[in-house]
Amino acid sequence: MTEFITIATFNFAHEIAILKTILEREGIPYLFQNENLVSIDPLASFAYGGIHLKIHPNDKEVVQQILDDLNNNLKIV
Questions:
Q1: Number of helices (H) and strands (E), helices first, in the chain?
Q2: I want to staple 54 with a disulfide (CB 3.0 to 4.6 A). Which of 3, 31, 39, 45 is the partner?
Q3: CA 58 from centre of chain
Q4: Mind listing the pLDDT tens digit for each residue in 2-15?
Q5: How far, rounded to the nearest angstrom, does the alpha carbon of residue 69 sit from its chain's CA centroid?
Q6: How far is the C-alpha of 39 from the C-alpha of 41, rounded, in Å?
Q7: Are 8 and 58 contacting, i.e. CB atoms less than 8 angstroms apart?
Q8: What are phi and psi of 49, to 5 degrees?
Q9: pTM for this one?
């Protein structure tokens, strides 16, 4: 996981629900750092800098397009 990069940050766990489904459907490996911590204590999101979406650098363009599409339609990022 050391080669993974952070491509987006979210404040609350509910913001990543749709994104997780899309990434899994596309077969893109990912990690949401701090997801469990923020799920248990939402205020911890601010202390830890939110939930970080980490992906492999080779998937950056594809994931960025997914984020852009979601942002244009849902305004989540």
A1: 4, 3
A2: 31
A3: 16
A4: 699 999 999 988 88
A5: 14
A6: 6
A7: no
A8: 80, 20
A9: 0.84
Instruction: Say if residue 51's pLDDT is above 80.
Output: yes
Tally the C-alpha atoms within 13 A of residue 12's C-alpha that lie toward its C-beta.
Answer: 5
What's the token pair of residue 52? 């970080």
Per residue in 28-54, is it b (16+ CB within 10 Å) or e — as a string? eebebbbbeebbeeeeebeeeebbbbb
Residue 64 makes CB contacts below 8 A (sequence gap 6+) with 7
**DSSP sequence for 38-74:** HHH-TTHHHHHTSEEEEE-GGGHHHHHHHHHHHHHHH
Q: CB-based burial of residue 19 (10 Å sphere; 0-12 exposed, 13-18 middle, 19+ buried)?
A: buried
Banded pLDDT at 71 (limits 50, 70, 90): confident
- As given in the structure block, the two tokens for residue 41 are 């204590």
Looking at residue 50, the DSSP 8-state letter turns out to be S
CA 49 to the chain's CA centroid: 13
